């Protein structure tokens, strides 16, 4: 292609108004710079990533398979439940299979030569293991729904809870994402968690371990960190943070990843809105943490921690 | 159908990889267990529920009918406004009619034999009553838009307010949902409220009673409980909670539902970001509640309540 | 059209059930009242506004042009990157051109007679200026991605950061919106910011000036006001507010718009979850603001400000 | 609603430009006139009709259930075939059930009081009977596919035949539509036939009875009338008409509907492009009808009928 | 932009595999050549054309406005008919207005300087005139539907005719397109006609003049030329051609456009399948033209013209 | 999975109403029977086929790349033509690459072990070769458009021709499909041809060789066979068949595939509506074949062949 022709084209094309050719070139350089500079931390290069759209399909079909009459197609009749559930599982698991394969390809990048079909076999095994956990996930979410119904005087029925409560939605997605996290799929599980975060405003890291009958009311602004451990029958309100206090840095100043650094919350604890609980501490069984309280040390079982309510009221 | 055939099929089908048949059976059992165990609280069984997708249609058309040039179709010309409004109302009210019928069917489940057409007649009456409220809803939201424009120095025009402010969106949806709540439709009104909560991060229970010229700035994390009563010209900022302090339990330990348990906020009150106001208390006319303040007792009219600002500043 | 005919029609049409004709008339009157009463503040009348759907197209194509392999089409191959980038830019800039023209038409309403093509020329110049900023926007977001990867022990790779972190999404949109704000397009830039606010729960006014390597973790509930100035390498957590303390009112009681009223946050500052920083104050370089702290006065460089942790713990 | 208001509205609305109010009134009158004048022939009034969109769903899912790997979803894997087939049948048959109920409601209009659930029961029985015919339909279409492959030297594989040949598509739809016609559902079966007619240009009335191994090549313009009977291994080319010669009129001049009036085409007949075969005549076994021939009388078995080829060739 | 950069880009981009840059350049040259060479016949250059998608919207809404309960939305209730009709007209006429403006811009290209708003005014007048014809169009199509019901023994009801018969669909579209043709909009009317041709296989030039009670049975392959004139109560079958015999050429050998060159078909004529009627001849009132007959001369009123049926039948 | 459980499920599921389990089993058996019986002719088994939806994407983007201002996006501006063309080519060629790979996999099935990447390399070469032909395809279609404009007195402009004429659409698709056929891709090319056949009613086998300036008017029902050869400046009308007379059968009675068996039509021939030309004969340069004529022998150059017009006209 002669240069003069190409020049003609770029001058005639929108380049004329907006200099698109120049911007394309500069953006190209920016990508090259970035790829060079991050070679150490980002080794994946240009390979394909799990796709958000595919994971939405996985999530919708799994939700339908778990709760066909409430989260499945609106015109489903009860006598077709099992046929629908089988189909929804088939679609969800096959779609998940493709995404798992992509994540495995990323994480095993170095031995790219590794047997193509061995990786497929691995993906298949992981999805199979995940599939076996679905009945237990359903059982756990049933306890969550009941906990919400019992814990909120505004809840009119268990159906209202399942249809309306963002906290229940977030926990349902978390229980799915957590199983995938356990199977060694941090990226997919994190992407699923963010789909739920975006919709509900509740940010639960897929690494968190959460017992049964868990209820988050209202939920906007809740953050639950990666190494948090939560017992049974725990109740949280909006804007509660279960976070890390400080991060451990390695010799070179780089953060050490994956260390336990979040709270252990024992059974039957209640944490009210806006409370912040930080660090590898324990909130003992049955404790109650008041709203907006800041907690960075162990709380004994059964304790009630509240803010001191130091306020100034002045007539204006 | 011979068993051996079916076994063949299930072995050949995806069952082979993922044992879908086993999972289907276990999920079936889980649903049976759940349905048996919740018979007392959840009496609705397998009947059809109001559908989120249908309510989105209702909401979009009502928004367009109320504000045709701003929330209606982008190419609407002013001379077609009334024709569009009539059509949008017709679509919205007929779609709502179907959903109201479904909710009535749920709530009157016991006398299932009840006259089919009587229930339709009831649904029609409710939608008719709701429709009569629309001009008043428009008038109220006009006061809200003006309050936002006047209350925010960053607001460039009333149009910017209506197009961009999540607080105005949330109040618009609430004023619609509240009318339906008043008419005895708790499920539909709650589903509408959650559509708005998801989008704006503002969680207003449809039971809350809110006066005119109401403005929520930024909004993420605001929670307003079921029995809250708010006067005119009230202004809230993000992450404000108007919640319940504790729940009343019945003899059997079950929560008493529907009791008044949330604050009364009188005219001209301002509540700054992150403040938590709990319980059946009164915030008197013109009071100002500072950011992050925790309030569980009455505040007199005109008072300014602020946090004590107990802080430690240390050089690192 | 004879009145009797029209009456027939309206009686026969849905008016019969829901009195749509009456509601249409009342809503018409409400609009007339509103338009009359707001003539002073809202001068735009019935003219066309920038459209949310068009701005979503702009944003998606710009995101793809900036990060083709991560935010572009899922099946893009690296060898097609530049062709895709050129096309995405072409689509985005032309769509933006139309919206800019609409905003210019609104703001120059008074001299409606002004040369039609002069306004087009102006729009074209603004979009051209904006386009030149895109490589710099890419460079800045690269620093943000790296800051997130380095600042969060839960981040597994820079790709995970770009694909999953709402804070990075919010900053990417802000850097685009801010350039448009700088060019005198407050409405479009605000609408873009609200698209991101809705998705991420992070509310950054497009007027805010933010340095490189900026990281917001979790993010839900963060609010950053119009005249905020943020240095380099600053880190925020969820629910942090950088807001105004009080608004300046003019002689007539109307708020003065656009005045500097938000914090200056210098380089290397960290602000933990739920902290509220208000007013035209300075948080000095390297300062650390603890969670839930309320700050309304200057904080010296290097200081650590934490809540006093006044709590009452009682055994229940 | 006061007349003057309504008049205002209609003058202000688009009526001003296009007099929409007048047109609405005139169209209303046109409908009233029509409904009055056709009361005898059209008794259905305003009740709901089977919907084209619903029948497209039925057809797509039945096609997928019959040929899952060729006409089902593109990414179906063979090991999921049965699960997909069960789901596709479930969707198709339930959607069909709704449409059958609508057609039954139309045809039993006079005894509108008839038991609502009796009609549902009837619809359910009809769909059940139809469902039982599906394996036989699959077997017949398999013979058609093979006939096409064997009869066309341009056919490269049986897969190409199933994927590409409009004649096969038309026969597949016909075999489905014919079963529904046999069950007393003339409207649904005709609507299905027209979906195929539109796509393929082949117009087969659902009443026609067609034996196995039937092949239509190219197909555009083929017309096969309601009472046609076609044997096995018959082959047609494009633009062949199997039509009625004349219609029988009753005493009052009205056409007698449903009388046998189309050809009987025996086994192994071939009819070439453009031939027209009219009336209740018999084309004997193994006969060959040449292109563009006009046949209105019986053709004996084994005969070859060709046009006399009377042509004039002149040098220009 | 330096040439070497651009060369780099094009080599790195898909150019490497498919030499896209070369193809782009060659296609660019092809367009330049074409535009130069056709300057005389194609004067429109790069200006915008009426869009098929917009015309589909016009057609769908007009169909719905004319037959709301049959061709309008499937869930329309009779009591909402007029509101729906008004809205459908409003949408259709405004969409048409935009397309008419585009066609007028094309045809008045030479005086491009002509008053922008004068052309808008003209478009508005044309659409207003068209709108006034809609009640008459409805009346005519009513006669067509009745003619189909009466003329086809296979027609079970007038509703089946309106829902299923491609001939009725084609005539409905023609009656709309013809009015636009009469108003001087040849391009829009032709595009509408082709939308119908594609769906029904019936090709009626919008210039053809057709009387009431017109019925085309089956229809595939029917062609009706631009200057054809058809009386009342005419019936055609599939593959009938009403065409031109030869074209008149000007001095330079170019065809003279728009000359009368097609048949006049008087009242009550029937033309059977495959008949070809060519030239500016008259088929007299009540004549019957047999199938596959070739007619190029006047046919007297009441005559029956049939093919001589010269055939050879041989035993194979 | 215990049999009794599965039996329970199938009885409870829709099986109860429609016996879906039985139908699934019978359809499964039907597929097994078919796959066994056709093993010889259909060796492809369960592997993936080129997909219609993907080919529609290919076709739409190629059409846009060839005629950006007429067949590209409706709002394309001329100054963005080349950028759009590059992008459309990139999308089309990459999508085509995937489909070509699938077809190659089918046809090389026996040596399944063959190098995976060798097949990819082959697909890439074929698409590269095809891409080089696009400028020539554009040039040819330009001659076709001009031929249509010049040959039809009803054609108002070359733009009308490109936007409206189904004959031009069919030839455009054919010229694309033919190149792919030449490259050894019979299935993809046939599927493309059928996309066009469905839309236009014109059935051109991709194997046909067609010279420049080709025009088909009206077009419905035209059939052009696989081994047809057509010269330059040929004109056809609707329902013309260029077909095979008889098929050559092998020893075993099976048709011999791919033999030359269709007409050679030399330059400047005109064939009028409904004419049927069959067999490996030659229609000499400049010949004119009249409407409905049946031709099975060579026609000398310049000859005019017309039907003898044997008709009987009787007064009724």
TrEMBL record, chains A, B, C, D, E, F:
SUPFAM superfamilies: Trimeric LpxA-like enzymes (SSF51161). Keywords: Acyltransferase, Amino-acid biosynthesis, Transferase. InterPro entries: LbH_SAT, Ser_AcTrfase_N_sf, Serine_acetyltransferase, Trimer_LpxA-like_sf. Gene3D superfamilies: Hexapeptide repeat proteins, serine acetyltransferase, domain 1. PANTHER family: SERINE ACETYLTRANSFERASE. The keyword Amino-acid biosynthesis applies. GO terms for biological process: amino acid biosynthetic process. NCBIfam families: EPS_EpsC. This is Serine O-acetyltransferase. GO terms for molecular function: acyltransferase activity. It comes from Limnobacter thiooxidans. CDD domains: LbH_SAT (cd03354).
């Amino acid at each position: 292609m002669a240069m003069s022709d190409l020049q003609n084209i770029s001058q005639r094309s929108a380049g004329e108004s907006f200099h698109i050719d120049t911007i394309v070139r500069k953006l190209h350089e920016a990508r090259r710079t970035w790829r060079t500079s991050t070679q150490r931390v980002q080794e994946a290069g240009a390979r394909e990533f799990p796709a958000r759209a595919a994971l939405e399909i996985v999530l919708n079909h799994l939700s339908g398979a778990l709760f066909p009459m409430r989260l499945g197609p609106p015109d489903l009749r009860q006598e077709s439940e099992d046929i629908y559930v089988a189909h929804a599982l088939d679609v969800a698991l096959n779609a998940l299979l493709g995404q798992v394969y992509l994540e495995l390809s990323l994480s095993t990048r170095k031995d790219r030569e590794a047997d193509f079909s061995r990786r497929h076999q691995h993906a298949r095994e992981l999805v199979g293991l995940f599939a076996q956990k679905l009945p237990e996930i359903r059982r756990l979410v049933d306890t969550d729904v009941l906990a919400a119904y019992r814990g909120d005087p505004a809840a009119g029925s268990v159906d209202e809870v399942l249809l309306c409560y963002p906290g229940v939605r977030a926990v349902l997605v978390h229980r799915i994402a957590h199983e995938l996290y356990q199977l060694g799929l941090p990226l997919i599980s994190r992407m699923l968690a963010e789909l739920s975060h975006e919709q509900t405003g509740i940010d639960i890291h897929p690494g968190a371990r959460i017992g049964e009958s868990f209820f988050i009311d209202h939920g906007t602004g809740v953050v639950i960190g990666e190494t948090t451990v939560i017992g049974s029958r725990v109740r949280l309100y909006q804007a509660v943070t279960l976070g890390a206090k400080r991060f451990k840095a390695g010799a070179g100043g780089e953060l050490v990843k994956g260390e336990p650094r979040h709270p252990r919350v024992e059974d039957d604890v209640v944490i009210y809105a806006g409370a912040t609980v930080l660090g590898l501490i324990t909130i003992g069984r049955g404790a109650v943490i008041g709203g907006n309280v800041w907690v960075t040390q162990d709380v004994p079982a059964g304790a009630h921690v509240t803010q001191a309510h130091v306020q100034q009221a002045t007539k204006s």
